[in-house]
Amino acid sequence: MGTGPTAQRRRLGILLREMRNAAGKDGSAAGAAVDRSAAWVSHLEAGRVGIRPKMLDELLAFYGVTDDEMRREMHQLAVGGRERGWWSKYASVLSTQYSAYVGYENDATGLQIYETLIVHGLLQTPEYAEAVVRASRPGESSATIRKLVDVRLNRQRRLQGENPLQLMVVMDEAVLHRIIGGDVQVHLDQMTRLLDVARGEPHVRVQIIPFDHAMFPGMLSSFTIMGFARDPDIVYVETLTGDRYEDPPEADRYTVAFGDLRAAALSESASVELIEAAVDRAATKLKGAAHAHGLTVAEE
Prior knowledge:
By secondary structure, the chain is an alpha/beta fold.
C-alpha cells in the first residue's frame, strides 16, 4: 500500500524534518516563518496534520530548497495528504487517535501484533466485533455501534487481494478463554475463525503464550508494530491513560520486546493445537447449555 493520505502526510513530514535539519533551523524558527508554532511544526513533521501548497512553498523557501523535482514531489505529497480516506465517512464516531491508527494500518505492509485481552480487530467475526464494541462503549447507541463495527470489518479488506497485509500475531492464552459479552456461540464462532486463519492463511501467523509460561516482557499492555515500504516503523501502544504512538528510536525497544514475546510463545503448530482446544471447549460448553435446556445444538 503506502499511497493513502496518512502515508503521504507522514512521508512529507519526514522529508520536511530532514530539510529543516539540513538547513540548520529549529522548530520555533520554522513555525515563525509560516506564522505557526513549534508544536505545529512537530505535528506536521510527524504526519499528524496536512499543509496547504502556499504555506509549503514558504517553508521550502525558508529551508533553501530550490530543486524543482523535489518541490513537485513535496507538492504531490501535500495534495495527497489532504485527501480523505475511506474511514473519513465514519469521522463522527472515531476518535482522532483511532482515525490515525486506521490510516496507518491502511498504508502498512505488515503488522506485528501483541494482544493480551481480545482477538485483534483484523481477525474478528462481525458478532465478536459487536460484542467487543458494546463492552468497550456501554450505553452507546445502536447506530454508533453499527458504524464502529463497520469500520472493523472494512479494515479487514487489507487481508484480501494480491498483496494482503502480512500479520504476525502473538496472543496471551487468556484471549482463548475470555467470552466477550457472555455469548458462547459468538465465542465458538470466533475461535473457529481464528483456527481457520491460523491453519490456512499464509500471510497470517499466530502464536499463543500459554498460561504456564513465566513472566515475560510486554505483559501489561497490547501493542502493534506497523511496518511500511519506505518509511520507519510506528508502534501503537494501548495504555490505561490513552493510546499513544512511538517513532524510532523509542519504537525499537518494542521490536526487541516482540522478538522476546515470540520466543516465549508456543510454535505456530502448537498454537494451532491450543486454539483447537479452545474450539472444543466452547463447543462442549454450548452443547452442555443446550442439553440443560432440553434442546439439541441444532434446535437451539
